[in-house]
TrEMBL record, chain A:
It comes from Limnoglobus roseus. SUPFAM superfamilies: SpoIIaa-like. InterPro entries: Bact_StressResp_Reg, STAS_dom, STAS_dom_sf. Residues 1-113 form the STAS domain. Gene3D superfamilies: STAS domain. It holds the Pfam family STAS. This is STAS domain-containing protein.
TrEMBL record, chain B:
SUPFAM superfamilies: ATPase domain of HSP90 chaperone/DNA topoisomerase II/histidine kinase. This is Anti-sigma regulatory factor. InterPro entries: HATPase_C_sf (IPR036890), HATPase_dom (IPR003594). Transmembrane segments: none annotated. SMART domains: HATPase_c (SM00387). It comes from Limnoglobus roseus. The lineage of its organism: Bacteria, Pseudomonadati, Planctomycetota, Planctomycetia, Gemmatales. Residues 36-134 form the Histidine kinase/HSP90-like ATPase domain.
Length: 131, 134
């Protein structure tokens, strides 16, 4: 079966969903991401859905599950690039994506992740007061 | 109400649910729907197709391009010969699920379309019809 690729970038995992996912593909992504967070000790997950033309209750549930599994494994999740038509539809459908942070662009999403994990010892940065 | 064209799409696997979304997109573009309305009816179709598959044990979608005066619309009928729904009112309620869903599919598709009708007979099957107008 085809899989959605997961890219590792230092402490983060990046996923860009480019296809209209059938349900099993979405479930496979959920499993793969959880395994990869565990394996790489990733601190953040960024999911780019800018090419997704819809988020229905199933995809919404998958995104929510990814975020809560990530949290258990001490990683933050940010969903970026949701199209306005998709966002409007999601609200009318009645889905709220609880616990999922969203950002308009990949850059903003990365900033949210960087800020969420804070300065790390390995980078040798001063653990000064936050903002 | 004049029907300009119609087609039937089988719903037997989750790949068929994707095919349902695709044909509904193409036909709603043909009906000159804007992007938001396209997204709404495709999302409703995705929910109803998944219900047909998950709870109805499979079935089909009948799709029609309809016209009333100057406006065009897309009408979708989902049919299965599954177990049926004993309490339709309860099934329509947001948050009610007999499985592990979120119970948003039926109520959500009603909100996302202009006309919604459900007919279900226990032991015989379920038919859900939605219409969206431009
Ligand atoms: N075609 C059908 N045949 C039999 N039962 C159905 C059918 N469609 C829906 N139902 C029943 O109605 C309930 C509510 O459906 P609805 O789509 O609103 O929520 P769900 O499928 O449980 O969750 P979600 O759609 O949010 O993933 C279902 O749990 C199921 O019990
Ligand atoms: Mg459903």
């Amino acid at each position: 079966m085809e899989r959605i690729p997961i890219i590792r970038m230092s402490k983060f995992l990046l996923v860009s969903i480019q296809v209209d996912m059938h349900d099993r593909l979405a479930l496979a992504l959920q499993e793969d991401l959880t395994a990869k967070i565990n394996e790489t000790n990733a601190r953040g997950v960024l999911i780019d859905i800018s090419s997704l033309e819809l988020v229905d209750s199933f995809i919404g549930r998958i995104i929510g599950t990814i975020a809560s599994m990530a949290r258990v494994l001490d990683a933050e999740t940010v969903v970026v690039g949701m199209q306005p038509a998709v966002a409007i539809t999601l609200v009318e459908l009645g889905m709220s994506l609880p616990g999922v942070r969203t950002a308009l662009t990949v850059e903003r999403g990365m900033q949210i992740l960087e800020r969420a994990i804070g300065p790390t010892v390995t980078e040798g940065t001063d653990a000064g007061p936050e903002e | 109400m004049p029907v300009l064209k119609s087609d039937t799409v089988p719903i037997r696997s989750d790949a068929d649910v994707v095919a349902v979304r695709q044909i509904v997109r193409v036909w709603s573009i043909e009906a000159k729907f804007g992007l938001v309305d396209q997204t709404k009816i495709i999302t409703a179709a995705s929910e109803l197709a998944r219900n047909t598959l998950e709870y109805g044990g499979g079935g089909h979608m009948f799709i029609e391009l309809v016209e009333e005066g100057v406006r065009k619309g897309v009408r979708l009928t989902f049919e299965d010969q599954g177990p049926g729904i004993a309490d339709v009112e309860q099934a329509l309620r947001d948050g009610y699920t007999s499985g592990k869903g979120m119970g948003l599919g039926l109520g959500g598709s009603k909100r996302l379309t202009n006309e919604f009708a459900i007919h279900s007979v226990v032991g015989v099957g379920t038919r859900v019809t939605v219409t969206k107008w431009k």
